[in-house]
Amino acid sequence: MKHLISIEDLTTDDVVQVLDTAEALLPIALRERNSVPTLRGKVVCNLFLEDSTRTRISFDLAAKRLSAEVINFSAKGSSVSKGESFKDTALTLDAMGVDCVVVRSHSAGAPVQLSSYLDVPILNAGDGWHQHPTQGLLDVFTMRRHLGNLKGRKVVIVGDVLHSRVARSEVQALHLLGAEVTLVAPPTLLPPDVEGWGVTVATDLDAILPEVDVIYLLRVQRERMQGAFFPSSREYAHIWGMDARRLRLAKPDVLVLHPGPMNRGVEITADVADAHQGVITEQVTNGIAIRMACLYLMLAGETAIPEVVA
Amino acid sequence: MTRILLTGGRILDPTSGTDTLGDVLIVDGIIEAVHIDAHDADATLDSDVEVVDCTGRWITPGFVDLHTHLREPGFEDAEDVATGSMAGAAGGYTALCAMANTNPVCDSAAVAELVYRRGQEVGLADVFPVGSITKGMQGQELTEFGELNRSAAHVDFFSDDGKPVASSLVMRRALQYSKAFDAVICNHSEDPDLTVDAQMNEGAVASVLGLPGWPHEAEEVMIARDLILAAGVGARLHVPHVTTKGAVDLIRLAKDRGLRVTAEVTPHHLSLTDDLVSSYDPVLKVNPPVRTNEDVQALREALVDGTLDAVATDHAPHPPELKDQEWEHAPCGMLGLETAFAVVNTDLIATGQLDPLAAIARFTAGPAAVRDVRGHGGAIVVGAAANLTVLDPDHTWTVDAPRLHSRARNSPFHGRTLTGKPIHTLLRGVFTLRDGRVVSDQEVRA
Q: What band does A98 get if pLDDT is binned at 50, 70 and 90?
């Protein structure tokens, strides 16, 4: 795994390797063990061209637990607004001699472009509506920790798939692990030709719920109403939102996940959110372990994880 | 007296339907003789005749491009009339229609005459300015069609380029008013409400790449509206860069019903598909976007059956610093003049889908029938101005964008090996391209 730009580039073995590595590193992420010196001397650059405090902190912690040096390069807006080309920005990083670039961008494809300009590993921390691979990996990691093997497990993803980089990574990661995915969304919030993703598309959430092992709720932004994607958050909550009544249709041990931040009152009611807060918080911790695993696999080469692996 | 004999070439003249071997004798810029199926042995012996061996080559009328961005005035960092004319000469063109989206916009006789005269000064191609439909391309007040039409530039073709005339009322008035000058209205076919933030063709590829899509309906809705309006007032409509199967169907239907509509297609829309965008290389970003293979096949069929009258380049240079941005921030547009024939030759002629005479018609007589280009693209007959192109249909070459003549280098065909190349271009009997080398504007004037 030279880069991690899209889950599409990975094989099932790659995903399993990341998850197994994350499992081994989880005690460090949980601070049950001290940091390890594995990436000492390596410089990880967090290139955040879009605000995202949570993801940046998660990557920051992941790198530091592995003893890498972290530099943060944040810039609002595009390179254009500074009169510089994106390529110039990339070449500047190259000249600084970083070992890995973690990139977050509003622009779909920015990590792909970066990988054509630079030789160092590129780790995509979210690009436009395209991909958010570490989120997809941390989600399947969380599911695997609760359900074991995901082969044949049924997952329903509910919400704004069209504008969601998480959904794209999630569907691909679940496929690689053999899970069956159903998408439920207002038809306006489904990407064209989504059937080509190898998913089932449904509109009646209530009819799906009794069969599923995992309910994955996507954030629905209120401003989508202005784009006439749906009439009101009230109607959205009524037809596609997760509330206590609807949740009772599902298996008692169903797993409810959300990538955060939650939009309480739209895709999830406060009581459901609170009742499932535990797993949703676990996702955050697991995110650190997954990001450590990715950095480790991309940067450590053959170095073993001291003590943990042993 | 300058005498040039093009000898032993395959003369392809769409206007007369000629497709035969022969010689063309040019005297002082005028075609003096055309020897069909014959060789002018006497002339070749004459010491003051320059004999140009055209064996294995095609002799055609000079190419006419209906859709060129020469960027002058205002955006000379991307291109100007001189560099664009060089690219045109290299591509076999003798006539270029310069688009109106300059700064200032070509909405006055002053700008139109400036562009026209710059073309004459450079002398590598005749430049025919396109006037904007509305003042400042703002979609509201009509440009003074009459003033532009009666200027030295003789503008009879109006377009707001990439900005669609969104108001049906303004579009209807423009069509009505154009009739006073027998002018042509060319409206960018895009319903802007359907393309807010659009980045590439809407469809399976865009869905995976996470790029907001440009639905084909946006193009078709606008073409349908414009066809209905043009039919209603009996005006002439030209549809630029057609890209979808549905658009082709609409235009074919309109032509069957006798509407005065013409249409063009670009080489890139005849050749490239949206799956290439997975590289996120902004050189592939263009408006309208490259579409699907199904669309490409429909466009090729429409070019063959004449539903599409012309190949037009939409040659759109951009400086590298603007293209070296994230996909969403990069401007739309591709170079086209120097690769147009090679792309059509490689993908359609060499494959047998389009016969050479019909293909040449789409580069010459087809566009020449859309607007008045003062004889360019016309018949190869005695007494006509010697605006001619000599092509080598078998010459194989690899496109190297930095070596093209444009000031910019945003060619989507960079690195591609293509077959077919213009070898000589003659503007009124003067070489603008000789042996594959563009003649400098100083040499042309000498």
A: very high
